[in-house]
Amino acid sequence: MPSWIEVIIRSTLLILGLFFITKLLGKKQLSKLSFFEYILGITVGDIAGTLSMDIELHVINGVVSILIWTLFPIIISIISLKSKKFRDIVEGKATTFIQDGKILEENLKKEKYSTDELLEQLRKKDVFNVSDVEFAILETNGELSVLLKKEMQVVKWGDLFPDGSSDNVPLTVIMDGAYLNETIYSAGYSIDWIRNKLKLKSANVEDVFLGQVDSSGNLYIDYYDDDNLR
Questions:
Q1: pLDDT digit string, tens, across residues 138-173
Q2: Which residues pair with 171 in a beta bridge?
């Protein structure tokens, strides 16, 4: 077999294998990487790249190595879910950098965090005065969480109207030009009610790509024809 064909076969199989491993490890790998998971991704990728290009390496040895590197985080994740102490050892603990507007210098030194780095992370949170911060905590994934003092927080709707009704998630009632009967009736609406809403907009259900009803009973329509602005 020509070497270039073997490279193609190896690369294709490894890509499929890495895709399967990514799905197996879960979505957490995409949104929140711990230090260990970061090292894991680099190592597995390096093994796969080397294995796909170097035809002198035995495929079985490389696959075994990848499986071992993949098996460890799965085992660690299972144990971490059941043991808080083990989770603290593997993932570490959150560290408080600012408390009641005061910087905790010892915690900064412990995490090898400089004052400039702390101020930079605060600016990324649109915070420019340390005295405005109630708490600033370095999470285990390296993200800085900031809680402003009460008087510095943005006023929310609930602060002004504590008894106000909350908005519900829009209900999808039409999709791909067809009524979603089960969804419509389970929400307490009817097909006739939706039809009347469509008549008011001079629309036919066949022309509607997506239709949603908000918490106020208003019907939003997205047409197949984007030029149809009714």
A1: 988 788 999 999 888 887 767 776 666 556 678 899
A2: 213
Tokens 């460890």 label which residue?
72
- The number of C-alpha atoms within 13 Å of 147 and in the hemisphere containing its C-beta is 10
Helix (H) or strand (E) holding 213: strand 208-213
Give, in order, the Cα–Cα distances in Å from 82 to each of 75, 77, 88: 11, 9, 12
Sign of CA dihedral 79, 80, 85, 89: positive
Q: Locate tokens 């047409």: which residue?
A: 223
Q: What is the pTM of this model?
A: 0.54
For residue 124, what are the contacts with CB-CB under 8 A and spacing of at least 6? none
Instruction: Give helix 3-25 / helix 35-53 axis angle, nearest 10°.
Output: 160
- Give the pairing of strands 171-175 and 95-99: unpaired
Q: Which of 192, 193, 195, 198 lies closest to 230 in space, CA to CA?
A: 198
Quick one: 100 exposed, middle or buried, by C-beta within 10 A (0-12, 13-18, 19+)?
exposed
